[in-house]
Amino acid sequence: MKEAGYYDEQSTDGVVVMVEPYSQKELIQQVVYRILDANLDRAREGLRIIEEWCRFGLNNAQLTGECKQMRQEIAIWHTAEIRAARDTPGDRGTELTHPQEEQRSSVKSLLQANLCRVQEALRVLEEYGKLYHPNMGTAFKQMRYRVYTLESNIMAYHRHQLLLRSHLYLVTSSSENLLATVEAALKGGLTLVQYRDKTSDDSLRLEQATKLSQLCHSYGALFIVNDRVDLALAVDADGVHLGQQDMPIAIARQILGPQRLIGGSTTNPEEMQKTIAEGVDYIGVGPVYATPTKPDKPATGLEYVSYAAKNSSIPWFAIGGIDANNINDLIDAGAERVAVVRSVMQAEQPTLVTQYLLSQLNRIKPQP
Predict the structure, then answer these.
(1) How far from each other are the two terminal CA atoms of the chain, in whole angstroms?
(2) Structure letter (DSSP) for residue 89
């Protein structure tokens, strides 16, 4: 029996001719070609999956074009010489799998998995490409950094688009049924949740925030952490909400990067303009009505809501004592987005309350 990989057989008119064995250098070359072939395919496939979401999910021509451009650049390196080394039947890696690859919990997890897949493939191509062509390593190193930027831009755009589509914002309060209540609201159409807990120890906060982050992302909803930038990063939250006395927004942005959301609380026009100028993605406006959640903050009333409707250049959420009984007063004052706490967290039927609030916020206003 011939040793695998060392001999070729050529049949001419039924005669088998034994060919000289490959040299060690040629064997290594064939292995390198197979590695390049597999990772060129892997990078292009991952980019195509990302491209489809940029095209159909985000409807963003620029991000779609960036994915397509990189796929085409990769294709140039996928030469016939490299393809000829492919040996799919003999590839033991085709049988390997992992349970996490069998399902995706959300579009976000799908995108992140494929972005990681592309980045890993590009790193392999960068290193093994140095054995194939003097320019290949440099080309794929540069492309890897482009994919890092692409990842930031996709996640930032995805979050901002979902923020713009979110009209109801649930801020949690301490509850024995925290997860169940939030999930009930998510079932009612909620797409934005903030975890707020001022009293529990960090171990419980980390446990609850981790579960809430996973829950929100499984429903395709944004998950924000109140005050704590470190906790937001630890649980892969979509962002953080900061009060006027919390960490400076500029420092939070340095830590979180451009792809995560930062919200800020405001209680008057001066704070609103200052907070927007500092670079937040959205603001809270209130408390509109007196609320035990903010016992030290006097109610701003509907006047500040009307001011925000005319002057805010970014998405804003009226907050403070808002419920099913007064939401239409907020809407009449110009509010298109509201944040609630007790009206959902203490509701007997959070799903129905959520659906009602959303139905009011999404209603078509009559034209004057």
Answers:
(1) 89
(2) T
| 198 appears as a binding residue in the annotation | yes
Which residue in the list 213, 265, 312, 343 is annotated as catalytic? 265
Instruction: Tell me which CATH homologous superfamily contains domain 166-361.
Output: Aldolase class I (3.20.20.70)
Q: Is 218 a catalytic residue?
A: no
For residue 356, give both structure tokens. Answer: 């009602």
Annotated catalytic residue 166: no
* Residue 218 annotated in ligand binding: no
pTM: 0.81
Q: Is 2 annotated as a binding residue?
A: no
Domain boundaries, the chain: 24-160, 166-361
CA separation, residue 155 to residues 44, 59, 151, 161, 185 (Å)? 20, 14, 6, 10, 24
- Among residues 324, 322, 354, which one has the least CA distance to residue 338? 322
321 among the known binding-site residues?
A: yes
Reported as a single tens digit per residue, the pLDDT across 324-349 is 999 999 999 999 999 999 999 999 99
**Which residue among 42, 205, 294, 337 is the active-site one?**
294
The catalytically annotated residue of 196, 205, 260, 337 is 196
Amino acid in the structure at residue 79: T
